[in-house]
Design a protein that fits this description.
single chain, alpha/beta, TIM Barrel, six-stranded parallel beta sheet, two-stranded parallel sheet, 10 helices, 37% helix
Length: 283
């Protein structure tokens, strides 16, 4: 009951908040111009998207910076947050590209991998790991993550093992969120935010993230039905998002459509997602 009331209060706080008072949070995974995968955006596309945001006068912040200004006041009217899930080593390429346009970013790392020597792999992407693509699935090391932090990036959590949190029992949920946060904080000094694996979180998961000490958390769904500190929606970006498509996708109208009743109705159809584990394969 307390969880439901907390989420209801958060929704009321966001009701009527103008779009200009919200940051535009963009979501990526890997960056590669040679890997033909839905997980990867090309270097050219990322550069095009960053240049577009700069031309439009968007100020770049990390996820934690944007959340603090959003809740405390003072958020610039045009704010963009570049986020990268999973912790692919190609995030280093993203850092170089974004830096040329005056931006830093937030990377959400799966903490079982930086010191393991193993390639990134979990249910939903295991088929991507082949001899030809192994290099693309190399994870950032702790040294890489520290280097990004020193360049102004934020390092957040993507849990310990990339588990589907909505299907985890309470003990596993607390461990995935708490252990990953502690691992990052112990190594890098702080861990304020988390992105949920597979992009989904219900009220129980959001409450667990708050209990684990996170300032904010990110989802990644087509419809932006929820917008509260521990379920902040993001816009998923692809290599196809350039030119008129990019302008439409990131326009005020495009943002409003994702928050509309029509978008929520489409989401309610609960289409099957093959890349989500069976316990939560509809969204």
């Amino acid at each position: 009951m307390e969880t439901r009331f907390a989420c209801f209060r958060a929704r009321r706080q966001n009701r009527g908040v103008p779009a200009a008072a919200r940051p535009l949070i963009l979501a990526y995974h890997a960056v590669s111009s040679t890997w033909d995968s839905p997980l990867a955006v090309t270097e050219e596309a990322l550069a095009h998207q960053a240049a577009h945001m700069r031309r439009r006068g968007y100020q770049g912040l990390t996820m934690a910076e944007a959340e603090r200004l959003r809740t405390g006041g003072g958020l610039p009217s045009r704010t963009v947050v570049f986020t990268f899930d999973d912790g692919y080593r190609s995030t280093l390429r993203a850092a170089d590209i974004l830096q040329r346009h005056g931006y830093a970013g937030t990377v959400f790392a799966v903490t079982a991998f930086p010191a393991s020597g193993a390639h990134l792999s979990w249910q939903g992407i295991e088929h991507e790991l082949t001899s030809a693509t192994a290099e693309q699935l190399e994870p950032l090391s702790w040294a890489d993550l520290a280097a990004l932090r020193d360049r102004g990036w934020e390092v957040g959590s993507h849990t310990v093992t990339h588990a589907l949190l909505t299907a985890a029992d309470d003990a596993a949920l607390a461990a995935e969120l708490g252990d990953s946060r502690r691992a990052i904080a112990d190594r890098l000094g702080d861990c304020a935010t988390v992105a949920y694996p597979y992009g989904v979180a219900d009220a129980r998961v959001a409450a667990a993230a708050r209990e684990a000490g996170y300032l904010a958390a990110c989802t990644l769904t087509g419809a932006h039905a929820d917008d509260e500190p521990h379920r902040r929606p993001r816009v998923g970006m692809t290599s196809a998002d350039t030119g008129p498509r990019l302008r439409a996708k990131l326009s005020p109208l495009g943002v409003a459509l994702r928050r509309s009743g029509a978008a929520r109705a489409v989401r309610s159809l609960r289409r099957r997602r093959d890349w989500i584990p069976a316990a939560g394969a509809t969204e």
